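Handoff note, outgoing to incoming analyst
You'll be picking up this chain. Sequence as last confirmed:
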Amino acid sequence: MIGVFGGTFDPIHYGHLRPALDCMQSLGLIEVRLIPLKLAVHRAQPKAGASQRLAMVEAAIAGEPGLVADGREVGRLGPSYSYDTLRSLRAELGHARPICLLVGADAFNGFLTWHRPADILALAHLVVMDRPGAPGPEDPLLLDLLAEHGSDAADDLRVTPGGRILRKRVTQLGISSSQIRALFAAGQSPRYLLPESVLAICERDGLYRGCTHDPAATTTAQPKTEELVCSLRH
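Most recent structure output, in case you need it:
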């Protein structure tokens, strides 16, 4: 099985990396592909350029077997959606290999508003990464989807290429990319929130120094879903 974990990664930090490793180890994934998006659709555009964010992902996971930086979104013209990315992966991997799209619990609560959600579920399994205390889905239609496609066992995901939904408890760290950007903007160090190799790139390229400070991003803030455990653009 292959895991797919997409997001802005602006910048990537331990709150992204630990859940990715949790899923890879607990689900027995051959690899997890971390895919930085190029253009955001439903949120503000990333502060760092796509190539810089890909370089940060590559630096963050260097030497970690099974975590793979995938740059397919960086070179794509125009915006795309999770559906498009999964189609691209299917063309590369074939139609038989199980693919697990890793998404955050809050992002999953809006899954039915995504672009072609039924087709996404046909292309891949959804692994919903739950954090302690996260609210569960309330939409009756989403609850119906869970009742039809939900699974409690990773082995269920191995027997089909897609179509199942597994809720998975992962380690959640109180870190967000917006918090890190705010520290840079304030002239403070975000050391120990992200890998040293990523910090080095940020400092070398002067990233986030000119960002507007976000007063909601504090060192004790809960991570925002889209920055912690998000899927690709919906």
